[in-house]
Amino acid sequence: xxxxxxxxxxxxxxxxxxxxxxxxxxxxxxxxxxxxxxxxxxxxxxxxxxxxxxxxxxxxxxxxxxxxxxxxxxxxxxxxxxxxxxxxxxxxxxxxxxxxxxxxxxxxxxxxxxxxxxxxxxxxxxxxxxxxxxxxxxxxxxxxxxxxxxxxxxxxxxxxxxxxxxxxxx
Length: 170
Known about the structure:
- By secondary structure, this protein is an alpha+beta fold.
- It is 52% helix and 14% strand.
- A four-stranded antiparallel sheet has the order 1-2-3-4, covered by helices on one side.
């Protein structure tokens, strides 16, 4: 192997794809099941193994790349578990603010923006980043609901303000 084949640039070249996959899966897709990261990790590990077999990749770089590929699904699962816990905590804060608003105004807010700036500096997001990171707040004649997505795009937790209980749909 030449000196350039084990350079830091080669290491960056091997680590960029798994890190990009983690960022995509955790921040954009937000799927706790992590299918994309699992499939990506398997493909990445296969690619590393082939390159080691063909002797086109130094073993020290291959070991680091393989470790990072293995960590992608683990990091994705961990980040999504954290993100869902964060959404649950933030939901409790929004529920408390809505109840305080109701006590002060005799009704629930028409939208979460009614809670700004007295209760929050800005409308809170359920999760960090992602397509499904916002709360849905629905007011109707019979019920007021706070909803956040646990498993995009189908599984959602729903707080019913009138019944004072959590439920789920999808």
